[in-house]
Amino acid sequence: xxxxxxxxxxxxxxxxxxxxxxxxxxxxxxxxxxxxxxxxxxxxxxxxxxxxxxxxxxxxxxxxxxxxxxxxxxxxxxxxxxxxxxxxxxxxxxxxxxxxxxxxxxxxxxxxxxxxxxxxxxxxxxxxxxxxxxxxxxxxxxxxxxxxxxxxxxxxxxxxxxxxxxxxxxxxxxxxxxxxxxxxxxxxxxxxxxxxxxxxxxxxxxxxxxxxxxxxxxxxxxxxxxxxxxxxxxxxxxxxxxxxxxxxxxxxxxxxxxxxxxxxxxxxxxxxxxxxxxxxxxxxxxxxxxxxxxxxxxxxxxxxxxxxxxxxxxxxxxxxxxxxxxxxxxxxxxxxxxxxxxxxxxxxxxxxxxxxxxxxxxxxxxxxxxxxxxxx
Length: 376
What we know:
- The chain is an alpha/beta fold.
- It folds into 2 domains: 4-184, CbiD-like, CATH 3.30.2110; 195-375, no CATH class.
- 39% of the residues lie in helices and 24% in strands.
- It is built from 13 helices and 20 strands.
- It has helices spanning 18-35, 125-141, 157-160, 166-169, 189-205, 217-225, 241-251, 262-268, 283-293, 298-305, 310-319, 323-342, 366-375; strands at 4-7, 10-13, 15-16, 41-45, 51-55, 57-61, 66-71, 85-93, 98-102, 105-106, 108-109, 147-153, 171-172, 174-175, 183-184, 210-214, 235-236, 255-261, 347-354, 358-362.
- Helix 9 packs across helix 12.
- The mean pLDDT is 91.
């Protein structure tokens, strides 16, 4: 497709979702089931309002079942599913209505809290609706009111799923068939935030009232190796601290404990709730400011502010014997802004560390919340 968006000064091409591929493949297979003639291209409407004309591949026409595939195109979005084939097989059956099944490479839901029922194939509501509506429209056009079975398969999905969040979400055996708009918007932050929300939904459905959050692998390693915490029920927030705190309040969690590297958490002390460097980078400036509040000279403040990393800045603070006082202020400010974000409705805490300097501080409720996660 030739739809584009501009992101960070670059022209990026849109793609289309696995859900769109599944719906298009199902529509093409249904047409061939009735006409017994090969379909080379199929038009499919997406919820975003864009109509696609997609090439139909790997067609298999038999008397009682038709199978074909649509190749996933993620556009300029980095996506492990780009280029893989999404298959649909359609056949008539005696039961009424349209039954949607998951074949090889489509994950099966094993835990509550997702948009799909436990035991059902991981085909999300919007793609499910797209598939059923596409198949039903072809059946109506051919004056057929009998039953149809549609099986969606992704042969490469078994291996690709191991690289995704699916195993953590209780989706086994393959990929999820996804998409709310039918279109892949390149470099979409919304898609990542939606994934985080799903992780939080799963934790809530498991009865976990106290959320453990990491920015990424560094925090997980520190929690396991230093704190001896289990991270199996944790959520990874990437840079989206504000969204996690907002959703934690919305979902009714009792507490949120964030364990993170100083390079991320120092930003929270300035109220920065998206810690990606493109939004803000106040780390060493904040440390320099508080150092000067604690008596550091202008020259020392400039040295700290000029440090390339928080590790280097903390090294200077330690040299000047200012680290304890400054880091205490930093942690107090982190707690202030976290509580401000949740409007005091849930308990929040943070633990800050450095790969070089180890533990750098905890907010007031951190020990209490760490103990809760040790109990789990």
